[in-house]
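Technical note accompanying the year-one report. For the benefit of new consortium partners, we illustrate the data format agreed upon in the data management plan: each record pairs a sequence with a structure-token string. No post-processing was applied to the example shown here.
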Amino acid sequence: MKHHATDAHTLAAAHALGALEDDERRAFAAHLRACEACRQEAAEFEATAARLAAAVSQPPPPTSKAQVMAAIDGVRQLPPRVAAPGSAGPALGRILTRRAVPLALAASIAAAALGGIAVWQTRNGQDLEDRARQTQRQLDTISAVLAAPDARTVHGRAANGALTTVVASARQNKAVFTAANLPAPGAGQTYQLWFDHDGTMRPAGLIDHDGTVILAGSPADAGAVGLTLEPAGGSPRPTTDPLLLLRLPA
């Protein structure tokens, strides 16, 4: 699926995931040279993929290399894949590539997850498995929002200097919040996110450092996303003035 030039600001996620076609990648690279907001957003999405990979990565057991080297000679190679006569060819491949944006982001943690499987068998198995499943669920939700056809993006700067991005999808009924340059909240404190419903602030999750989180709850009928500094564990209602009140994209 092609995007028009006016959609350039919406391509940061696809660019970070390597999901743009050649002509779109060249055009977006030129756009990045003139758009600081998109440069920041693309960097945030790349950092998010790296953090998700780190969340499930574990050092391999010391014996892994020897076991792999010993097993190599007994592994049968698969034959090369050859396209069947009359197949759809490159055009369909490009369409499938664009529709596979969630899979592109998921691939960024695949190696770490597979490495973790071996560790699960030898130590702390259940805890690591639960952690990986939770990360995968978060990844799936983030990917679905970023790849949604109706995804809309808005940028903002908090009063403490943090650069923020919200991506919302009515179809997914979810919103994703990304923060960069977010100062440490301090001992006994945390940053809390809120949905603003006509002046009523509803808790939408916590964030302690740079990264991307799924906002808890439904963004339907919310007009903005707020960010405040709260006691550790969060509050049922804001106890400080908002550091950010970012209107949700229409």
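Partners are asked to follow this layout when depositing records. The chain has two domains: 5-60+91-147, 152-247.
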